[in-house]
Amino acid sequence: MPPAKRVDPFTNINDINSMKEYFFKKKRIRDLTIFIIGINTGLYPTDLIHLKYCHVLNDDFSIKIEIDLSMFGRYRIKSVPINESVVSILNEYINYSKATNLDNYMFKSQRRNSLYSNSLNKIIKDATVTLALNGNFGSSSLRKTYLYHTLGICMHYYHDDEVNYKTINTNL
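Predicted structure:
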């Protein structure tokens, strides 16, 4: 089996806006929400697709100010703040999805409770191919985009303790 190709971050803000517009025009609110949360939080793709409503909503269904990362077990930090872009799309998505149970997965597939990671990869790849964006994009592009725009560089490998999420205030 050949080694997997590295994916690129969305370095161009116009490409990010094109992706948002593409999902919006196609009425793919779930995919738009995943995209916006992914590029604004830096969550790993597998953690992103396993988000439950309780991770982003309080008991009264108001939006939390941060996502608790302790349940994922791989982060050295405890939480990541939820910025204005994420709050805005979450408000829209919660109304769209008619969330009633905080223990439900946010991003369901037609056949399962949550998306498969290869499904998220296909969603991103298909959109970038349709939009004819230059680069090799996939599900990890979301996390890399967050790092690129918050740190100002594209890092292929890094340790979570090098990023202080509390000081980052970027809205993508």
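Summary: The domain at 13-165 is CATH 1.10.443.10 (hpI Integrase; Chain A).
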